[in-house]
Write a structure and sequence with these properties.
The strands form five sheets. Strands 2-10-9-6-5-3-4 form a seven-stranded mixed sheet, sandwiched between helices. It has two domains: 258 residues, 3-Layer(aba) Sandwich (Aspartate Aminotransferase, domain 2), CATH 3.40.640; 120 residues, Aspartate Aminotransferase, domain 1. It is α/β, with parallel strands linked by helices.
Length: 382
Amino acid sequence: MIPYGRQHISEEDISAVVDALKSDFLTQGPKISEFEKHFADYIGCKYAVAVSNGTAALHLCAMALGVNKNSRVITSPITFAASANCVRYCDGEVHFADIDPKTYLLDINKVRALLEKHPKGYFQGIIPVDFTGNAVNMEAFRKLADEFGCWIIEDACHAPGGYFTDSKGNKQLCGNSNFAELAIFSFHPVKHIACGEGGMVTTNDEELYNKLIKLRTHGITKDPNLMHKNEGGWYYEMQDLGYNYRMTDFQAALGTSQLKRANDGLQRRREIAQTYFEAFKNNKSIIGQSGVVNGHAYHLYIIEVEKRKDLYDYLKTKDIFCQVHYIPVHTLPYYQSLGWKEGDFKNAEIYYKACLSLPMYPTLTKEQQLFVIESINIFLNG
């Protein structure tokens, strides 16, 4: 079987987890802070907060930024639902802007047009998504957000190690929070770094960092400097309504181990992407992602074909299990109940009807990839 994504667990990973399991800590122990430090260094930010999953990371970001029933936030319709759901968890109002059909990313011009339709202050935030691992130009979004008084959460779940080049020629790593108040990552098994489940929030803002630390643990603090009083070593204060969004120590141990070979995995993903591009670039039946783009992290490699479902079903008969990323969020029944409908975002809907995510993971062998390519060509030429 060839899936669209797969984790790679090495002997070193297993050893790291076993060592953590033999230690004195299973939940919130020293491996958490170790993982946070190494991840912050990898991304190039000041602070990192490990949490139970990427959705929890998004929710905590929305809470830390004060999203409430009066908040209106813009995001992309082509993303996993959590990018929008985090706003709804806080009773905020989600708005969508269409994608750029060439990059599949949130179209900054569409976002500007939406912002300009309303008085300044009508929208409070923007959540761009580094979809497929393609880095959003966060510098451009920062300029736009500042013009209209908005904060930014960068959803970088697909893009650890990805980057864009800013106007001064500097490499800006996805999630480094140089242009966003907060950024988030996921450590789901098919992502670049696998912890089983897990997530991370990154930021350069100390005040937001302290909020996140408290909110991930029920809103409770034991820091004497933050408490109103201190009755002894057992004493704690619940100062906000938070959640239990903690990561376990053995998950953090796995994440730290995986992080050591993250760059090797990223390089292999780019090699796989280039092979797909070269194989399909002259096939007029396929709209494919471009050849390797500087800074692209290639969580996904997506093609667009006219008979997507037929190809999907055919590949399954060959034990090739592709996937579709994603059903446009505004067409999901829950969001339709809020007033969104098919026809609202033309580019997103055209993309969805044709998109197919091909197998993309570092342990995909050359022979397996060539079999995938050959099978697609046989179907399209048949």
